[in-house]
């Protein structure tokens, strides 16, 4: 099959012919139609997140089931599906406790190693292994545990929901489980990229009274208003934390979401919240990046600083798909560009240049 292969840090993806194995027990093979271009993939391409090479990246997958491994139930060949980038094993102590987003097997085998849960990849090239970032969706076929696969409702376009399993699911987990945003809450979204766009959309669905988008790019802020932001702050033109406070009568927001993964955006989130407010760190920063916290300020202001990694796939993906089916959530509104698989390298180059509003989607079939 054809795949976009990552060969080395800071080298463009190369379209190559590689081999893919049949799904093992409990796994599903998906004929990929679309795959979102995520900033996490970009971190790997730039060498900011260590990952073995050669590898196939891509973890926001939509497609059609082509083959089922043994012991898979509830899914059929031909089903239109999306995947979650978190592939819960369903067996470890964290999965048993309902914490699928920090599945022990997922972190032990897949995150830094590119394997599925038998310690092997399903991809190879000339007899040598090709590693998988999640399920390796930048290819014509992806193999993944059935626990990460969800049927798409009739009438919903696959390309519209490709990014649901990462950027949207990440946003949902931050809003629902980390912050527990309620009707009437005020929120700030620091960085209005892919995850930030999903945070804005879902904060509106959750009934947030004020949704303040903060970014350095005017076009992204304009798009944020379309998606549901009630106010915007251009942090290239003003002190963003002060601007957020001015927009909330000097009070600050109840919740600030850091959606990029940098010390600067973390500082903006930290300084934008009200006393007793929540700072939710969602963006994945390169290793070694740190954010400064004054311990006395945390105590005096009773600040809450929380990390959020994805959501709980088997509980939350059906909820997100239902919201899409009922027209309450429109992830397609955050998609600004489509690329064919042959131009996957340009999709990530454009993402690196800051040209992508919301999400770019790579159409594989």
Structure description:
With 365 residues, the protein is an alpha/beta fold. It folds into two domains: 2-164 and 311-363, Quinone Oxidoreductase, Chain A, domain 1 (Alpha-Beta Complex), CATH 3.90.180; 168-307, NAD(P)-binding Rossmann-like Domain (Rossmann fold). It is 27% helix and 27% strand. It has eleven helices and 19 strands. Helix 4 crosses helix 5 and helix 4 crosses helix 10 (313-325). Its cofactor is Zn(2+). Keywords: Metal-binding, Oxidoreductase, Zinc.
Major sheet: 7 strands, mixed
Mean pLDDT: 97
Structural class: alpha/beta
* CATH architecture call of the largest domain: Alpha-Beta Complex
Shape verdict: globular
Provide the number of structural domains: 2
Highest-level CATH class of the largest domain:
Alpha Beta
The level of helicity is 25-40%
Précis, in short:
This protein has 365 residues and is α/β, with parallel strands linked by helices. The protein has 11 helices and 19 strands.
